[in-house]
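Lab notebook, bench 4. Still working through the backlog of constructs that have no structural model yet. Next entry is a single chain of 218 residues. Request: give me the structure tokens for it.
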Amino acid sequence: MDIFLEWVGSTVSMSRREATEVFSEWAEKGKDKGMENGHAASVHAMLELGGIPRSDNYSAVDIGCGNGWVCRLLAQDESCTRVLGVDGSEAMISKARQIDSNGEYKVTKLPEWMPSEKFDFIHSMEFLYYLHDPQSMLKQLHENWLNSGGMLVAGIDHYRENDDSHDWPDALNVHMTTLSIDEWKAAMIEAGFIDVEMHQVAASESFLGTLVMCGKKN
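Model written out:
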């Protein structure tokens, strides 16, 4: 899948850039809309796997929310009582607030920042592998972000089995942690999640599919 490579417009430097710096550049150039369009099929499949819409009232957070499009999608569900979008890119959050002045968005530095209240549903698309220690973040999400009985649904396009994604770190000049499907599943279980499921969605002839991790907190 060449979705990331289409957005690369900078020259690779000697040191890795912060992913949030790249995302801010994309927001300023209007490339956030391309991210939304490129990930739409995967995200809709993720929300179905996560049981959205739900019959019971629930709160939700989108980690790495970009311009907030998934937050606005979740907010359309009458059962969703609160939705928070968090992202490390100030430009992305600024754009989210411009589009949706009534929405709740916050610039955060992850994994250091933690919410004051826990959520029933955590959504994340294309966030975890930018961390140097995503396994530790999964533990934080389980312990400090998620209510008992809540669910995490996280999607990633960069994983070991997806050969086409292996050159993304050099193309974007950012760090990416490359784990296999089994390693991601083991990390979910080690973090404390139960009923862990791994799915590959929105696959095509040229794309192995988004790897989706689902897990509940007992």
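Notes after review: The chain has a mean pLDDT of 90. The longest strand covers residues 146-156. Flag for follow-up if needed.
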